[in-house]
């Protein structure tokens, strides 16, 4: 066996390897996909219901300023103002929190499916080894993840700056506008910023998912030796299976040969093929093949037929069709009834004529 069969992992993972990896909690999952989906859900909800929330907040601010300015606010008025603020805050924030959480769980489920791994949550004493922890900290994968995080941060920062830079002059002078104008400018700025940031996160999530999939498939790859060992463990030793199949074929061949003596006629090619047919009007709807063979098996069928006094008829075309279309134990197709019936009828006439001659002679 070549050296690469043992060490080099070049073959895709088998279904069993993937199942075992999932049982251990090793699945294809990208955290960036979850973050991007959560952000996209929150932004979509904000763009849909944002104006309604802003109107509620404006009413809350106006109402609050009016009550605070009133000299007789009192404890009851302060309590009512606080309750109103809490209610508006919950109405504004609760749908976003629920939607973001639901979309995050959905994104995780779409990646991994339903998964409960006891091995994943079990306590491993080896994880407390400081040497192994330091090795993981300074490993190539750790450095790669750090570099990738810095690149993601730089990309998001560039997107944020592209949204902020053109609007700095208008944001720097809020006193030139009234309250509604300030809210309008702030809302426009937040909308542009969130939409661009969401697009950036979606692009990053797609790239990260492709990279995670490449890494996952690379980790699961198997060597040819591993695949052979897995097949040996799950299906048994190939050598033993070959012997079993050979034994089964030999038993089937012997059984077939023992059935040759029950045939009514053997149709030959005349040398290469032999097909033994049996027909009983009382038990069968059509003639049935009880044995067939090629080469050495065909010669053995002809020998047994002669030993048991079974007629051997040469019909090359019929022999070829029967050998190709009808398996052992199968019935002759309707399209071949006529050709087989003619042969059987001839044999029956010969038998009857011979029987009459023997009875007259006796």
Report on this structure:
With 362 residues, the chain is mainly α. The protein folds into 2 domains: 17-219, no CATH class; 257-361, 3-Layer(aba) Sandwich (name from scop), CATH 3.40.1690.10. It is built from 14 helices and 4 strands. Strands 3-2-1-4 form a 4-stranded mixed beta sheet, with helices on both faces. Strand 1 and strand 2 form a beta hairpin. Helix 3 (31-69) packs antiparallel against helix 4, helix 3 (31-69) packs antiparallel against helix 9 (179-220) and helix 7 runs antiparallel to helix 9 (179-220). It is elongated.
State the low-pLDDT regions, or none.
1-5
Q: How many distinct beta strands?
A: 4
Strand order of the largest sheet: 3-2-1-4
* Main beta sheet strand tally, sense and closure: 4 strands, mixed
What string gives the helices and strands in order? HHHHHHHHHHHEEEHEHH
Mean pLDDT: 75
In quaternary terms, these chains amount to: single chain
Class from helix and strand fractions: mainly alpha
The general outline is: elongated
Tally of individual helices? 14
Strand content: 5-15%
Helical residue percent? over 70%
* Domain tally: 2
State the end-to-end CA separation.
76 Å
Roughly how many Å is the radius of gyration?
42 Å
């Amino acid at each position: 066996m070549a050296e690469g069969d043992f060490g080099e992992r070049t073959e895709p993972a088998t279904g069993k390897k993937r199942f075992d990896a999932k049982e251990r909690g090793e699945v294809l999952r990208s955290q960036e996909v979850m973050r991007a989906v959560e952000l996209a859900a929150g932004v979509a909800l904000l763009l849909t219901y944002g104006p309604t929330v802003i109107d509620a907040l404006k009413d809350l601010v106006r109402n609050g300023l009016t009550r605070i300015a009133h000299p007789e606010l009192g404890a009851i008025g302060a309590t009512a103002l606080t309750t109103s603020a809490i209610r508006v805050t919950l109405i504004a924030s609760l749908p976003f929190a629920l939607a973001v959480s639901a979309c995050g769980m959905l994104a995780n489920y779409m990646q991994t499916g339903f998964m409960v791994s006891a091995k994943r949550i079990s306590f491993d004493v080896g994880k407390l080894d400081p040497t192994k922890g330091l090795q993981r900290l300074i490993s190539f994968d750790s450095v790669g993840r750090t570099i990738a995080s810095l690149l993601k941060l730089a990309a998001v920062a560039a997107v944020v700056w592209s949204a902020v830079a053109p609007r700095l002059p208008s944001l720097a002078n809020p006193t030139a506008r009234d309250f509604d104008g300030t809210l309008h400018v702030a809302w426009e700025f937040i909308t542009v910023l969130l939409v661009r940031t969401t697009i950036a996160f979606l692009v990053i999530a797609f790239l990260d998912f492709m990279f995670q999939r490449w890494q996952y498939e690379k980790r699961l790859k198997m060597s040819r030796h591993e695949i052979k060992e897995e097949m040996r463990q799950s299906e048994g030793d190939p050598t033993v299976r070959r012997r079993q199949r050979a034994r089964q074929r030999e038993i089937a061949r012997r059984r077939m040969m023992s059935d040759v003596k029950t045939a009514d006629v053997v149709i030959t090619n005349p040398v290469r093929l032999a097909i033994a047919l049996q027909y009983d009007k009382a038990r069968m709807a059509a003639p049935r093949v009880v044995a067939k063979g090629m080469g050495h098996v065909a010669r053995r069928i002809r020998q047994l037929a002669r030993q048991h006094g079974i007629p051997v008829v040469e019909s090359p075309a019929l022999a070829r069709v029967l050998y190709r279309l009808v398996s052992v134990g199968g019935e002759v197709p309707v399209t071949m009834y006529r050709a087989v019936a003619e042969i059987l009828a001839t044999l029956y006439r010969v038998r009857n004529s011979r029987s009459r001659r023997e009875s007259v002679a006796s």
